[in-house]
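REQUEST FORM: STRUCTURE PREDICTION
Request ID: SP-0412
Submitted by: Lab K.M.
Chain count: 1
Length (residues): 80
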Amino acid sequence: PIGASSRNVTDTDAQLRIQTVVLRGALNNLGIAMKIDSNQIHAANYNLWGESPDVMLTTTAQQALFNAMPNWMVIKGLPV
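STATUS: Completed
RESULT:
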C-alpha cells in the first residue's frame, strides 16, 4: 500500500526526479489483461485498475525510492 510520506527539503542531500513511466498500446489499458494464447491477450471490460498502469508504476517507483533513500528528495515528474 502507498502511504502518506513527507520529508523536509532542508534535511535532504540531493534530489532525484523520476520521469513518468511510458507504456504503449495494450500494456496501458485500464482493463485487467488476461493471456489467452501465446500471442493473444484479452482486456477486461468490467474489471478495471484504479489508475492506468503507467501511473501506478511511476507512483510505486517514487514511493519505493523515497522510502529507501532517506537523505534524498524523490520527486516524480518532468525536470523543471
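NOTES: Residues 9-76 form one domain.
Reviewed by: T.R.
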